[in-house]
Amino acid sequence: MRLRVLLFAAFLVCGFLVLTSRTDWGQRRILRPLSSAGGQIWSGPDVARSAGLSSDELNNIDIYKTAHLATVSVTSTVYRRTLFLEVYPTKDQGSGFMISADGKILTNSHVVANERQLEVTVDQTHYKATLLSRDESNDLALIQITPKKKLPWLRLGDSDGLQVGQKVLAIGNPFGLNGTLTTGVVSSLGRSIRGENDQELQGLIQTDAAINFGNSGGPLLDSSGDVIGINTAILGPNGGNIGIGFAMPINRAKPLIDDYQAGRKRPRLGVSVVPVSGDYADALNLPTAGGLLIQEVEPGSVAARAGLRGGRENVTIGNFQLVVGGDLIMAIDGKPVDHNDAISRALARKRSGDTLELTIFRNGRTMLVRVKLSDEGPI
């Protein structure tokens, strides 16, 4: 009998120890460090092991450290009149970026509204700036300051190989907040919008990186820190950002720089166009391969002298309103038109005095028109 009592007591004690051990392990397995060959490994929640910066964040930081030093504030003094014809000065502010250590800066043409009173701020130092060259058709301007020391500058990338979805970074001075960085992606390519002077800007990069007033003229960078665009415009109610911004591809600015250095002026054509293809082209009795339908030819331009024709009648097809009856540009220098900005791309390779060969469709037949270019008139 005594033996049975002892065995029963021993069973109760062992059971209690087992339960206590399990409960204690259930609590301590999360909290205590476990030893291993390499030292101690914390066995707590995964979030404790993920502290730090991601590779993407480090990339953003590295690019900003260099690029914001080369991004500048550009101020243009503009004189306006009140309803009582009193003249008063206002300051329009935008951004720009250094492309050389000696003070050459790229920005938008609309940022330098008054070229006679330009001021550039670089790292809280103010400089008077002068306009070197301007390309209003692409909303571009090249200006110059005279710094007392060499300044940081940005590399120009290649905008022809851009892909929708790739990361981009925008730096500028929105609302006077100098050195602001925003990030996003390339949302679309080849966009066309109307500029401030109602000129059509073609072949733009669309991005969701936040761009606001004051960002104009600042750099749009890729993940290597190279400039692939110049922030130009936004689409949004009351000027607010809704994730739709536009940048001029940097390859459009390269001819401007090259021509300035060589003392050349850029050629003009003198037409406004809209792209048509597929069902829209078929509805207009045009070749379904499509092309660029000329809406208007500038009087006195090289296009007018070459006999190119603009539209004569307004029509609405789907959600688009077009002027029809003009020439359809199907190819340029023998290459089929496959981009909305095909004319701008072709002109970027030309100089005043060169010839542009256009394959056009007019009155049911295809013909060649050779245009001798000059630097007069709009694109």
Properties at a glance:
alpha+beta; Thrombin, subunit H; 3 domains; Pdz3 Domain; 379 residues; 6-stranded antiparallel barrel
Structure description:
- The structure is a single chain.
- It contains six helices and 22 strands.
- With 379 residues, it is α+β, with helices and mostly antiparallel strands.
- It folds into three domains: 69-144, Thrombin, subunit H (Beta Barrel); 167-262, Beta Barrel (Thrombin, subunit H); 271-372, PDZ domain (Pdz3 Domain, Roll), CATH 2.30.42.
- A six-stranded antiparallel beta barrel has the order 3-4-5-8-7-6.
- β21 and β22 (365-372) form a beta hairpin.
- The chain starts with a helix and ends in a 7-residue tail after the last strand.
Topology:
Elements: H1 2-31, E1 34-36, E2 39-41, H2 55-70, E3 71-81, E4 87-98, E5 104-107, E6 118-122, E7 125-135, E8 140-144, E9 167-172, E10 180-194, E11 200-207, E12 219-221, E13 227-234, E14 245-249, H3 253-262, E15 271-276, H4 278-283, E16 291-297, H5 302-305, E17 313-317, E18 320-324, E19 328-332, E20 335-336, H6 342-348, E21 355-362, E22 365-372
Antiparallel strand pairs: 1-2, 3-4, 3-6, 4-5, 5-8, 6-7, 7-8, 9-10, 9-12, 10-11, 11-14, 12-13, 13-14, 15-16, 16-19, 17-18, 19-20, 19-21, 21-22
Domain count, please report it.
3
Gap from first CA to last CA: 113 Å
The shape is globular
SS-based class:
alpha+beta
Going by CATH, what is the homologous superfamily of the largest domain?
Answer: PDZ domain
Helix count equals: 6
**What is the average per-residue confidence, as pLDDT, rounded to a whole number?**
81
Structure summary:
This protein is α+β, with helices and mostly antiparallel strands.
